Amino acid sequence: MIRSAVTISLVNEARGGPFVFWDNLAAGVRKAAELGYDAVELFAPSADAVDPQTLKQLLVDHKLTLAAVGTGAGWVRGKLHLTLPDAAKRAEARAFIKSIIDLGGPLGAPAIIGSMQGRHSVDGVDQPTARAWLVEALEELGDYARQYATPLIYEPLNRYETNMVNTVEQGVALLKSLKTRNVLLLADLFHMNIEEVDTAAALRAGRGYIGHVHFVDSNRRPAGDGHINFAPIAAALEEIGYDRYASAEALPWPDSDAAAKQTIAAFKKYFRR
Ligand code: LER
Ligand code: MN
User: Fold this and answer.
1) CA nearest ligand 1 atom 3, residue
2) Of 100, 182, 194, 202, whose CA is between 20 and 30 Å from 232?
3) What's the pLDDT tens digit per position in 202-230?
4) Is the torsion defined by CA of 168, 172, 177, 181 positive or negative?
């Protein structure tokens, strides 16, 4: 069964980004539970910024699970990513991601690699070199996540955010090229709306490789506040047996509470028919 999740960002530098709740972990968790979400997805400034015991207790108290933890703060705060020319910086990026895997792993939550994949043909790094570094990192981090029995989640992004992998098809090809089988794709419906010819068809073709969904509309507002037709997307996810999270990574539009309410209503409409 697909489960609902809502994002909480604790990253000041990501202000303006597509996260529903902001700044206050306890308040975000409380709201998520009140509205009937199954889980929260966390965007943390660093692993040290969150006390694992406090996080665990909050989740237990509110009967929620942790859907995933984002790693993008490594980029927005530390200007780190996995395909930088400087080997020491690439190693720092991998260490940052490992620390996030160590934060979410004990709670059963995978880490997400989105903006930390970087881009090629900037900073003098050509495409084959960047691709090889990305593959190397995914092999290492995918295997690292195995100790927690969680996958590592890799996110294709739209062309304005990366030129590494933009579509599910390219993502599946990348995953198939890896030795590790512990990396799965994040299907972010906002990015897919820009890059895919047919989002539902892309999801069907991604069968077995989709590990997380960012449930959001075409304009990054909450599902239902843009022009995505969610019915065929929900049908495709059901058809491929997708049974992980649909997580509201959406702008807090018109405000956090309204965005969370809108998304859970849309979630029920499409995934709890
Ligand atoms: C992260 O999940 C994402 O979708 C990126 O667009 C963040 O920059
Ligand atoms: Mn996303």
Assistant:
1) 114
2) 182
3) 999 999 999 999 999 999 999 999 999 99
4) positive
